[in-house]
Design goal:
- The chain is an alpha/beta fold.
- It contains 11 helices and 17 strands.
- A hairpin with a 4-residue loop joins β7 and β8.
- The termini are far apart.
Length: 430
């Protein structure tokens, strides 16, 4: 895929180009009519995407110079850059309308939004995909990059994914390395330096007939250490906001660091919002002595800490081992397919009748508690709604009894379960 960066002079086209490609501090010449008028380099995060820079080619009189006209036919997406500080977008609107003649996808980048206010009204541009960024502060870039990675040129539309995965954990536990191994190329930057990943990095891979979207999140830190005006605050907020959107959350720890206090706090945040959680003990290759004992002791520690949890699958792996990655892909597929299974209403009611016969709920205010029927209302998380003549009065102990029995009855090992109670609508049900 090929993208072309366009815009008025001095709006930050070159800064954007340098930021998203493998070129650093590229020197741009404005001499019109020479090959120095534009540069091309692969996108840093995806080698299959070429980025063309066009410094100084747009002005009020001429949209595209002769030197660039030859590459227009290769371009799939126009990226039009606007200065956030501009007083109006009248000229930009005219030039964008000219670009529409080429019948290609158009994105708009509002650059130099250094405080990330995003308060500019740009509805009159008529462009659906608009991104507010600051090249100088490297803010807001990732959403733009995600669009490029998910765009299907052939169908001229975004790729539809079958399932979504999210990688969570402390800094430097191997999330970015794992993403790169799953997708098969260096999509995410890997470094020993903390906070290398400062935004959500998205990519995808295909496995056994399904397409998986995968998001590598920034390493989370303790809330009490975050300044609400800092980048860390917004990074953490954004990371936590996507948990509910993901089919399978994957939590990583470093085997040498173990399941420390910070990891436990982060885990609790992820676990509470997860339908299912895959717990990965990473970097097992670093353990040279008594590896089995070290791994087993750590698994015991995790299970003890969350003994009541039903939806945690623990896997020790090394991201450097190809067999481990293949095993992980198969495990992900297995869990994802389990998540997406529906339990029929007839099966649920069979279970409900069985469980109530064995152990009925104690009377409430002298009245018998009747469970009319149950049905599945959601897959993520697995949610069962039970209709009864009582809803708010069901005891916590009986709720736990129903949950545990449900897991055993349907032989569920890896799904989070919620049971809701709703008042029976029967007016004669007293």
């Amino acid at each position: 895929m090929n993208i072309l960066i366009l815009g008025m002079p001095n709006v930050g086209k070159t800064s954007l180009y340098n930021l998203i490609t493998n070129k650093n501090n590229n020197i741009i010449h404005d001499t019109i009519g020479t090959t120095r008028d534009w540069h091309v380099s692969p996108l840093k995060s995806n080698r299959n995407i070429d980025v063309y820079d066009t410094p100084g080619i747009i002005n009020q009189k001429s949209l595209v110079t002769k030197s660039v006209s030859n590459i227009i036919r290769k371009i799939d997406i126009f990226v039009y850059v606007i200065d956030y500080k501009a007083e109006n977008y009248f000229i930009d609107k005219e030039l964008i309308n000219e670009l529409r003649k080429f019948n290609k996808e158009i994105l708009v980048i509002i650059n130099k939004d250094d405080n990330f206010k995003q308060d500019k009204k740009i509805d009159n541009l008529g462009i659906k995909n608009v991104y507010f960024i600051s090249c100088s502060h490297n803010i807001g870039i990732q959403g733009f990059l995600d669009f490029l990675s998910e765009y299907d040129v052939k169908d001229n539309k975004l790729i539809n994914y079958d399932f979504s995965l999210g990688l969570f954990g402390k800094t430097n536990v191997g999330k970015s390395t794992l993403l790169n191994k799953l997708v098969g190329f260096e999509r995410s930057i890997v470094s020993n330096q903390p906070k290398t990943t400062t935004d959500i990095v998205s990519s995808s891979y295909n496995f056994k007939g399904n397409t998986y979207s995968i998001k590598d999140t920034a390493g989370l830190i303790k809330k009490n250490k975050i300044d609400k005006n800092s980048l860390d605050f917004y990074v953490t907020k954004k990371t936590l906001s996507i948990i509910n959107e993901i089919n399978l959350n994957i939590f990583l720890i470093d085997i040498e660091q173990g399941f420390d206090t910070q990891s436990k706090k982060i885990f609790n945040l992820i676990y509470q919002k997860s339908n299912i959680l895959l717990f990965i003990i990473n970097k097992t290759d670093l353990v040279k002595k008594n590896k089995k004992k070290v791994i087993n002791d750590l698994i015991k520690d995790i299970n003890y800490e969350f003994s009541q949890s039903k939806n945690i699958i623990i896997l020790p792996i090394s991201t450097l081992n190809k067999k481990d990655i293949l095993f992980l892909k198969n495990k992900i597929r297995e869990l994802i397919l389990e998540i997406n299974k529906n339990i029929s209403t007839s099966q649920i009611n069979k279970w409900l009748n069985h469980v109530v016969e064995n152990n009925s709920h104690p009377r409430i205010n002298g009245k018998e508690v009747k469970f009319k029927y149950g049905t599945q209302v959601s897959k993520n998380p697995l949610t069962i709604k039970i209709f009864s003549n009582f809803s708010k009065e069901i005891s916590n102990s009986y709720k736990r009894y129903l949950v545990n029995n449900f897991y055993n009855f349907f032989k569920i090992k890896s799904r989070n379960l919620k049971i809701l109670f709703s008042k029976s609508k029967n007016p004669y049900d007293l």
